[in-house]
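W.,

You were right to be curious about this one. When I first looked at the sequence I had no strong expectations either way, so I just let the prediction run and decided to look at it fresh. Below is the sequence, 345 residues in total, followed by the output.
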Amino acid sequence: MTAADHIALQWFVRGVGTLDPEDRRAFDDWWAADPSHAAAWARWAEDWSQLDALPAEGLQHLRHRLAQDKARAAAHRPWGSPLRFLTGRLHRAWGRPTFALASLCLVVASGWLGWSHWQQQPVFVQTVATGFGQQSEVQLPDGSTLRLDTHTRLDVTFRRQRREVILPEGQALFRVQGDTARPFDVVAGPLRITVVGTRFSVRHTPGVPGEEGVRIAVEEGRVRVARSNAADPTAVVELTAGQQVSSNAAGVLGPVAAVAPAGIAPWRDGRVSFDDTPLSQALAEFERYGASRLVVRDASVAALRLTGTFDPRRLDNFMRALPKVLPVQLRTQGDTTEIIAAPLP
């Protein structure tokens, strides 16, 4: 690396467009002093053009970091300039052409890592949760709205280029404010749901028998559903309004189906709906809203299929209706009610 190359790189690091009048005159004098200076500048200009992909804010951040590194090195190293030391080491090892490329790679890599780290820093973090029998609605800074059902937790993280909500357990209704520059992701168990602007529901209740997987239903707009750890880009399902899909606990997606007549989230109106659901699974669903004190010990009774819509906060109505729709009767002992098979006529 020639002295002209070295000095040209120094000027690039400083940023000629930001020089004060005195330093600008010094740069102009250096430029005019020898034709080799302009040639060195042109070589670095060609290499430096690779940094054009960085946003302006990121480029300014990079220059600031490089200037800081140079100042620290000059204050603590006997060679006075980190570039001069690095120039000598790499020039002896590889020669000037390889040094120019290596120098640029080092600058680009360190600058990009710094910029990428800055981009990934959260700008908003919030955890919201509901207890048994509770529901809650939360508005996010971007205008999106989250409606949480009972026994649900959401971890919200916004970054500069993306928005993410993690649903460890429960079910929620999402009304997402459109922002094409910042997609909105919901991570539920093994699945990632990506949207720009829409209204949809996600259920992830691994502790409920028969509901260990994830269910996504769309009311408005479009969402993309994929396994969060899948490398196969074809393992993706796109849902539009009126469609839903479910997965098992491992994230294997089932067929796309129409949303049930009860809608994507009947729980927002204080209802739970069952469609040919085993009685044991229906009772587990009621337990999400509080202690039902309903038990079933007979496996054949537990396997009976139930269809209907009920208010989980009014179990007395459910208990009165149950013997009318299934061949069962209720036997109460203390504060527990057992559901048993009705006697044969």
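Here's what jumped out at me. The first strand starts at residue 124 and ends at 129. And, maybe more interesting for your project: Confidence is low (pLDDT under 50) at residues 76-102.

Coffee later to discuss?

I.
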